[in-house]
Amino acid sequence: DAVCSILSVNDTKMLLVALDAVDCILKLGMKLNKDYISFVDECDGLTMIETLQEHESEEVYQKAIALIETYFGAEDGEDDENLAPDVNGGTFSF
């Protein structure tokens, strides 16, 4: 909960450290077969990470995307909202 609360600050360096911490915690959870992903989700960590996709820092954006794709990936059948459409002869396809 403490690490997730840091994800709401507006300091880029603090956000990068917090995102790295969340990544390490989730990676360790997977290694130990612990469901730390649910803990992060329960303390609104996923919502905060999703919000960081619109952060002004490209590095924060990239780390947020990587966390979401690695640990909270889109479920089968869901469209990825960050997926760029394919342009096919003047038409778009998703």
List keywords for this structure.
94 residues; mainly alpha; two-stranded antiparallel sheet
Model description:
The protein is mostly helical. The protein contains five helices and two strands, in the order H-H-H-H-H-E-E. It has helices spanning 2-6, 12-31, 36-42, 45-51, 58-71; strands at residues 86-88, 91-93. A two-stranded antiparallel sheet has the order 1-2. Strand 1 (86-88) and strand 2 form a beta hairpin. The longest helix is centred in the N-terminal third of the chain and has 20 residues, at 12-31. It is globular, with a radius of gyration of 15 Å. The N and C termini lie far apart (36 Å). The mean pLDDT is 83.
Biggest sheet: strand arrangement: 1-2
H/I helix tally: 5
Unreliable runs: none
Number of DSSP E strands? 2
Question: Mean pLDDT score, rounded?
Answer: 83
- Beta-strand content estimate: 5-15%
The H-and-E topology, N to C, reads as HHHHHEE
**Euclidean distance between termini CA atoms:** 36 Å
Rounded Rg: 15 Å
Coarse structural class: mainly alpha
Helical content band: 55-70%
Q: Report the principal-axis shape.
A: globular
How does the major sheet shape up? Answer: 2 strands, antiparallel
Question: In a few lines, what is going on in this structure?
Answer:
The protein is mostly helical and 94 residues long. The protein contains five helices and two strands.
